[in-house]
Structure prediction request, 637 residues.
Amino acid sequence: MKTPLVKPNKDLYHNQMDKNKITEAFWIFLTRVFTLFPLVCLFALLAKIVLEGYGIISWEFLFQPPKDGMEAGGILPCIFGTIAITLFMILMALPLGVGAAIYLVEYGGDNKLVRIIRAAVNNLAGVPSIVFGLFGLGFFILFVGRNLDAVLNTGLLFGQPCLLWASATLAVLVLPVIIVSTEEALNSVPQSHRDAALALGATKWQTIWTVVLPQARGGILTGAILSISRGAGDTAPILFTGCAYFLPHLPVTELFGFIPMVNPFDQFMALTYHIFIMATQSINVERTLPIQYGTTLVLIALTFLLNFFAIMLRIHFRKKLRVN
Amino acid sequence: MKDLVKKKHLFNSEWFIEKTLLFAGVSSVLIIALIFVFLFKEAILFFQTRPPFDLIGITVFDSWEEKNIFKMMWQAVNETPKYSLIPLVCGSFLVAFPATVMASVFGIGAAIYLSEIAPNKVRETLKPSLELLASIPSVVVGFFMLAVIATIVQNITGSKFRLNAFVGALGVALVTFPIIVSISEDALRAVPKELRDASYALGASKWQTIWNTVLPAGVSGISAAVILGFGRALGETMIVVMATGNAALVTGDIFSSVRTMTATIAAELGAVAQGSEHYYALFLVGAVLFTITFILNLCSEIVINRMRQNLRM
Prediction:
């Protein structure tokens, strides 16, 4: 019978194992902490804003303009302005973004142009929002606007900061969001459905219009909602393109003298900008603190509701696709 | 005959639709090009009245010390306006760098947890929460930092300035975190399962597998995430304009007030006359910022594309 030259030290072996197990558990625990800590911060932020802002929310706060030098009253013009710009924004961005995505997925293939477009979309998503603000001012207002005024002889109608240009700037900002989510939606439509439609003699566009787009509807809608939430929450692009510190009236006008509509050539107030100026530039910051929390709560509620809705919608449509 | 005419009409409308969609597709390229043109068009005009060296510093007579002093300052509204970019770039990096470090440490940890450790159920609930975090308007984070966190940080650290680069960095880290998580997680998930199986088969534990196999395989995707996160942190505007104190100083002290490039544009552009030197200077700052983030985005995209190719092989 052979005896081992070196007797294994069992104690050492077990100690080593235990140590390994402990370090292993420690690292895994640490990753959990890294995941949860920012989320805890998020919920702390939300809790603080809800607790502080809850008290001031009332019908009066939601449906009255600010008064007493913005130290009292409500935020109706801000809510109205935010909704108005995001509506105009989505009207501009959605057709362009969906069109671009359809081109990329259905017509593009894998050529050089498509690769350049993809690179541009990715880059556009990473452009700082303040740069969009500069772009909006330099391109939309001073170049397009002033030149339109000169050509149409409209005085200073287009060439000034207004709701139209602010929405256009935001539309550029959210374009990548819409393109990416629409692409994803189009890609999730099975190729066999397209083949079936084409085999039945449908043209390419008929296939897209009657077979692909109806199935991609959910994904496109999700992208649209996400981009609305993104647009409603961004401040930097509208700083110089149409946002106003205070407006005594809502930006509305009468089309043909009797149909009320949003006036795209007027300036507007927005929730995000209101928070910014109230927190940094109001004369008595301490006194207006409740208004700041209230406005923040309204903005957060708006963006979170939109996001929550979008997430639910996506889950719903994904399930439906899976069933099919 | 009639059929043929109809068909031709149809063909034409198909052609028209395709060209319209092509235009929509190209519009993104067009917009990027227009941003380039319209930023640099205005920025270049700055050099009509100023030599490029003024962007580093300018020698001015200091009435206090009664001699000429070389100053690296951004003082646009002054008897002798100074447009040195050094304090702004310094401020931007002093906020973005710590923010990216914090967001990366937490973000990569979270990505490991989500892709390797968390059970499916946990992940399904955590991912939407991360999306909610990503959807918080930056002005809200800025407000929270300004109103709540700044005081807490000052009480803990006893710093001289209530609003400083560190407070800004915390806020920026919070909004950069979800970006880094989502891209790193994608990178880790793209690591083939065979690699993990091979590691387990050799007797490696879970963490050994993650540390020695999965992370090295996903490192390019993770670095792309960090680069992209850094770009976002540099471009973040509302948080820094609200929470960093807005003093354009050349400093390395993280607890000092700073002013970033983004904050300078946001705070000053509203009040300048269009066509003035100051106006062009602000566009120049924007052009510099755009160039930096553009290069960072491009780098991260190249890294991601290379990773995709490698994994396919």
Notes: The beta strands of chain A are 66-67, 72-73, 252-255, 259-262. Chain A has a mean pLDDT of 87. Chain A touches chain B through 88 residues (CB under 8 Å).
